[in-house]
Amino acid sequence: MAESTRLVDLVQADIDAFLDERKPLLASISGDLTPFIDYSRDLLSGGKRFRALFCYWGWQAVTGQSTGFDLVSGETRVSDLPAVIDAASALEIFHAAALVHDDIMDNSDTRRGMPAAHKRFESLHEDGRWTGEPRGFGQSAALLLGDLLLGWSDELFDSGIRRLADPGARQAARLEYNRMRTEVTMGQYLDILEERSWRSYPEPELLSRAHRVIVYKSAKYSIEAPLAIGATLGGGTVEQVEALRDFGLPLGIAYQLRDDLLGVFGNPETTGKPSGDDLREGKRTVLIALARTRLAANATRLLDELLGDADLTTQQISMLQASIRASGAVEQVERIIDHNVKLALAAIADSSISGAARNQLVQLADTVIKRSA
């Protein structure tokens, strides 16, 4: 995994350099804009970098070029490496934007063990003793931060694809990026829609609707889209791109199902969020949909009554966790995760991608599924 480790380091350096370049512009507008750079830098420091890694290995899967990160090589494919690094970095900035917006919509207080962006802006208001409501200021300012990060991700992505020698690859990668951006935005809407409208739909539809949220809010943009973007950057064939999609989508579903389990049962010291946070936020996940089909009527009514209560006590959280476990929904989700991982691995087993990339994708699949944060 040395190559992946080096890629992560290069992406971090690329992001830092990008923020350094944008800092003077914000400073020239107003000294009051310092938090936008500082909060962006904090949010973009570290992390698992899954999207960047899948973008890079999608590129490697179709080029089969072992770079060793030697940017002075005469090989055409290696000369495209700076473009791949920019694209991978842009995906990480896009992800940061999505996190900022997601935390506003979910009223999440923390992100990666730190106050969420809207809470940090809220604290600025409180510390300055400004007029008006701190909460409203915090949410409005964080909304603008998320929008700024979206714009910046697009700038960096454009900068990257302009480096490509192949104009066809530039166009194909841009189309993939645009598609990803639309899908995840609509997936976010479907997520908040389910939290509020679920009573309007027949009980048998709730599981499929929860699955649809997983696909468009997370699975596609977490793994499938980065792989497809990387492959198109490398001029991949239709067959290669489709094999990577067939790998990425089920693995992305498994990734989000693991995230849903962590959102209910995760250790706050490793997830950076309070235990049972998804219960307080009222997430209508596949886990919850499965639990509702297995619980007794009175237990289902209690789950529906408490789910989404931001003031749930530790005792109530523990009670809901125990109820969900007793329903057998956790074991069923684990089986669905295993099934999707098998589908993903089968999709690339005999595909026409490079052997080195295939091995790395198998390792990444294991890392994605066995994570604890």
Structural description of this entry:
Helix 8 packs antiparallel against helix 9. With 373 residues, this protein is mainly alpha-helical. It starts with a helix and ends with a helix. It has 17 helices and two strands. 77% of the residues lie in helices and 1% in strands. It has a two-stranded antiparallel sheet with strand order 1-2. It has a single domain, classed as Orthogonal Bundle (Farnesyl Diphosphate Synthase). The protein is globular, with a radius of gyration of 21 Å.
Brief descriptors of the model:
mainly alpha; Farnesyl Diphosphate Synthase; single chain; 373 residues; globular; 2 strands
| Number of discrete helical segments | 17
Number-wise, the strands total 2
Helix content: over 70%
Q: What is the helix/strand order? A: HHHHHEEHHHHHHHHHHHH
CATH class: Mainly Alpha
Shape: globular
Share of β-strand residues: under 5%
Please, how many domains?
1
Biggest sheet character:
2 strands, antiparallel
Give average pLDDT, whole number. 94
Distance between the termini: 20 Å
**Radius of gyration, whole Å:** 21 Å
Unreliable parts? 70-76
